[in-house]
Write a structure and sequence with these properties.
single chain, 395 residues, alpha/beta, 14-stranded mixed beta sheet, 12 helices, globular
């Protein structure tokens, strides 16, 4: 939990915060079913709060730093919209409407996960009919785009973990679906079809991002050979793909500074706030950037440390990961030279980690050298079918 900004930055006791829910919670969301569920936010320090959802009513207390937390008991999946409400003893109330209970899946990675439904083969027609699935809900957390140009003043101002991503929960409708990850949409739709429960999908993918940007800083700080990735020197480190370093220098005008590709930054900006949220699992599609570096031991370690690190920091030691293997593409671009080796190390990492399943899509590649095969439906459906088989425990 983040608490009030003042409390986070200065660790000041006696802070008074407006009554709010934490970042994961919003109207039109899906709450995870089947497990005790922590709900949190901020409020007036030292006071009591009452959390209500349907027939449940539980008490909590606001700590001196302005944080409150209350725990709902495990619930069955339900398509019935309900109100999630928090009330302070002094009378302030915040309510979230149209809340369902089901499965919640985290979609993360780089541009092939970020690729929107509206641009995918058949995606326009799919988005037109997205409203036919009222029990699918979307949380599209959109980051500053790392286009090949300098950031403007507003974009530079968003280069903080608190501001990089923007978005909110929404029902599945034409506009929200068209802008959402195509792979994530088709995966979630398949989970919904097979399991017949509401499905919430959270997308925090960022085009061009390397795995090191998604590593928790605790992991980066704990291993000596990650030391060169810490601080401003990361933009000179050959452990970060030259393409990513070059793009960051363009975005930042050649000056050191925070950037989405900075090691640890995307975990802090897009993942850390979900600590304690009982998500069903992670749908992960990433590796194109790291495959530029021909160091199989290093890249396998990045994948392994990412999975282990997320599980530890998010307090979900058995968090399932469904990892998409890089596809086959055409051409002989030097940056794609080591893709076959990268696919092999992805397979090795998945095989040695409990609760990680590799989704093979090499047969779904295409002859173009474009790194973004636009037919995302079969990829998403394979991913969703595998995720829907998960029974809540490791193999």
């Amino acid at each position: 939990m983040m608490g009030c900004v003042t409390a986070v930055l200065f660790a000041t006791a006696g802070v008074s915060c407006a009554l709010e829910f934490g970042l994961p919670f919003g109207s039109h969301m899906v709450l995870p079913a089947g497990r005790d569920l922590a709900i949190w936010g901020t409020g007036a320090k030292g006071g009591q709060v009452t959390l209500r959802f349907g027939d449940f009513s539980v008490k909590g207390r606001v700590e001196l730093n302005g944080d409150w937390k209350a725990v709902l008991p495990g619930m069955q999946a339900s398509t019935s919209p309900r109100v999630l409400e928090i009330e302070e003893a002094g009378g302030a109330v915040k309510r979230l409407d149209d809340v369902l209970v089901g499965e919640v899946w985290f979609c993360a990675g780089q541009s092939n996960m970020d690729f929107p439904l509206g641009r995918a083969v058949g995606g326009g027609d799919e988005a037109e009919h997205a409203g036919n699935f009222p029990s699918i809900r979307l949380y599209n957390l959109t980051a500053v785009a790392t286009a090949n140009r300098p950031f403007n003043a507003d974009e530079r101002g968003r280069m903080t973990p608190e501001r990089l991503f923007e978005g909110q929960w929404a029902r599945a409708e034409k506009q929200s679906a068209a802008a959402f990850t195509a792979v994530g949409w088709w995966a979630g739709k398949e989970i919904h079809r097979i399991k017949e429960v509401p499905v919430g999908l959270i997308d925090v993918s960022v085009g061009g991002s390397g795995a090191e940007a998604w590593l928790p800083r605790e992991v980066l700080q704990a291993r000596a050979d990650y030391s060169e990735l810490l601080g401003i020197s990361w933009m000179e480190s050959e452990r970060v793909a030259a393409w990513a370093r070059g793009r960051a220098k363009v975005n930042l005008g050649g000056k050191p500074g925070a950037h989405p590709y900075q090691p640890g930054f995307l975990f802090d900006a897009g993942v850390r706030a979900w600590r304690g949220f009982a998500m069903s699992g992670v749908l992960w599609y990433q590796g194109e950037t790291n495959a530029e570096i021909h160091d199989d031991v290093w890249n396998e370690r990045l994948i392994t440390d990412l999975v282990i690190g997320w599980r530890r920091i998010l307090d979900q030691p058995e968090l399932p990961f469904y990892m998409v293997q890089l596809p086959r593409i055409g051409g002989d671009a030097p940056l794609r030279k080591w893709w076959p080796q990268f696919r092999e190390l992805q397979a090795r990492a998945a095989a040695k980690l409990d609760g990680v399943e590799l989704i093979v899509i090499q047969d779904l590649g295409w002859d173009s050298p474009d790194v973004h095969p636009p037919d995302k439906r079969p990829v998403g459906e394979r991913l969703g079918e595998a995720a829907a088989r998960h029974d809540g425990s490791f193999r």
